[in-house]
Amino acid sequence: MNLYIDSHSFHYEMENLTRAFYPYEKITVLKECDELVAPYVYTSCKEDITVTLCVQDFCKTQTATKTNNDTDDELIMAQLLYKLLCERFNTTLPWGLLTGVRPIKLLRRIIDEKGFDDAVEYYKNDLMVSERKSELALITEKAEREILSLSEEKSFSLYISIPFCPSRCNYCSFVSQSVEKAKHLIDDYVSLLVKEIEATAQYAKKLNLKLETVYMGGGTPTTLSAPQLDLILSTVNSCFDMSTCREFTVEAGRPDTITKEKLLAIKKNNVDRISINPQTLNDSVLEIIGRRHSAQDTIDAFMLARECGFDNINMDLIAGLKGDCYESFVSTLDKVRELSPESITIHTLSLKRSSTLNTDNIEIDIGIKNESTDMLEYSQKVLLSDSFIPYYLYRQSRMAGNLENVGWAKKGCESLYNVYVMDETHTILACGAGGVTKLKAYDLDKLERIFNFKYPYEYITRFPEMIDRKEHILEFYDEYFNFD
C-alpha cells in the first residue's frame, strides 16, 4: 500500500490509521512522486484537505476546507481517511481514529481541557470512538485518576527484570531467553543484578526519593531458584526505604515454574501481590503456543499460592490465540472466575515483529473483523457484573481486531505499578537486562530514558559500562530540582 503525503506533516497519523485497516501490508510513505500507483492512499493539504483511497475496484475521494490550524487540519484529514476506509471495509473500528498506545491518558487530558461533558462528546463524535469503548474508557479513566493522585513529586517505582523463561511462547517478543540456552548465565546475572539494585538504592537514598511500588517481571522470575529469588528480594528490602512502598509485585508467571519453596521465599520478603499467567486453560492451545504446562497445572499453582498465604493474585489471559475460539475463551475465563483471583488482565493478541508467529510466517487472524471482538465483549460484560473494575488499559500496533489490553481488578486490588508505568506518571528506576529507567519531571512534560543492555550476556560482560550510565539519574535530578 502506497501512502502519498502532499503538503502536510501528518504522515505518522495517516500511516497508523491506514495500518489499522491493513495490518498485514507494508505501508510505503511517499512524499514525492510523478504518478499515483495503486493500491494507494493520497492525502493532501495543498489547497483543500483531500483524501483519496484507491484499491482494487474501490476509488473514492473526500474533501474538506482547510482551517490553517495544523491540529484541526490533521483531525479533519484523519476523519476523511477513516470514513473512506470504513466504507471500503463496510465496518468501523472500536477505537475510531485512535491509534496510540494510551487512549485513557488522552481522554484524561481532554477532560482536563474541555470539562467532562464536552470531552465525552469529543471522544465519541470527533474521534469516533464506539459507545462501548467510550464507556470502558470512562470507567478506566476514573479508576486511574484515583491511583495517579497517590503519586507525589519525588515518588518513584522500582522495576527488576528477570529475562529468562522455561521456553519461549510463539507470540512473545520480550527480551527473554530459554533456560536451556541461558542456564550458564543465571548465577552471574543474579550476582550482578544484586549489585545494580544496591547501586540504584544509593541514588534513591541520596535524592531522597519516595518508593511507591516494586515490580519484578520478565521473562519469568520464577525460573530462578528459591535461594536466588530470596537473595534478590531481600536485597531490595535491605537497601531501599520500604516504609513508603504501597505495593510489591512478583510475576510468578508460568505455572510450570512455581513451587512451594519459591512461593515461600517470595512471601517471606513482604511481596504482597503475584501474577500467575495461564493465558488459556485450553490444553491444545497451550501446546500450540509453546507452553509446557497444562490447565490443571495452572489451577494447582493457584491453589498452592493461596495455601502459602497470597491474597492478591492476578491472572493473565490472551484473546485471539491461534487455535482458540470464542467458546474456548469463554470457558477459560469462566474457570478463572471460579478461582476468584483479585485481578484478571485480558490481553489481545498482538502480532509482534520478533515473535515466532511473525518470523515463521505462521498464519494468524488479526484482521479488523475478528473473533477477539466477541471475546472482549464477553469479558467486559461478565467482569463488570462480577464487580471487577477496569483500572488500566493500553493498546499496541497490529492487535487482533484493533482492540486493547485491559487490567480488571476488585476494588482495592488494582496494580498501582501498571498505572504508573503506563501513564508515565513518575520515575521508574529499572534494574536488569532489558530494563529502561524512565526519569520523569513530575510537573513537566519531560521524560528521559537510560537503557540497560538488552541481553543477559551483554548485561554481564558490559556491566561496568551500564552502571556508569546511571550517573545520569543524579544529573537529571540536579537539573530538575536545582540542588545547587
What does the model show?
The protein is built from 18 helices and 18 strands. It is an alpha/beta fold and 484 residues long. The chain has three domains: 88 residues, Double Stranded RNA Binding Domain, CATH 3.30.160; 45 residues, no CATH class; 322 residues, pyruvate-formate lyase- activating enzyme, CATH 3.80.30. The chain has a nine-stranded mixed β-sheet, with helices on both faces. Strands 2-1-3-4-5 form a five-stranded mixed β-sheet, with helices on one face. Strands 7-8 form a two-stranded parallel ribbon. Helix 1 packs parallel to helix 2, helix 3 crosses helix 4 and helix 12 packs parallel to helix 14. The radius of gyration is 24 Å and the shape is globular.
* Structural class determined from secondary elements: alpha/beta
Our Rg estimate from Cα atoms comes to 24 Å
**Can you name the CATH architecture of the largest domain?**
Alpha-Beta Horseshoe
Uncertain stretches of 5 or more adjacent residues: 354-361
Strand order of the largest sheet: 14-15-13-12-11-10-9-6-16
Under CATH, the topology of the largest domain can be stated as pyruvate-formate lyase- activating enzyme
Spatial separation of the terminal alpha carbons = 55 Å
Largest sheet: 9 strands, mixed
Query: What is the residue-averaged pLDDT?
Result: 92
Indicate the proportion of strand residues. 15-25%
CATH homologous superfamily of the largest domain, by name?
Answer: tm_1862 like domain
Number of helices: 18
Number of domains: 3
In CATH, what is the class of the largest domain?
Answer: Alpha Beta
The counted number of beta strands is 18
Overall geometric form = globular
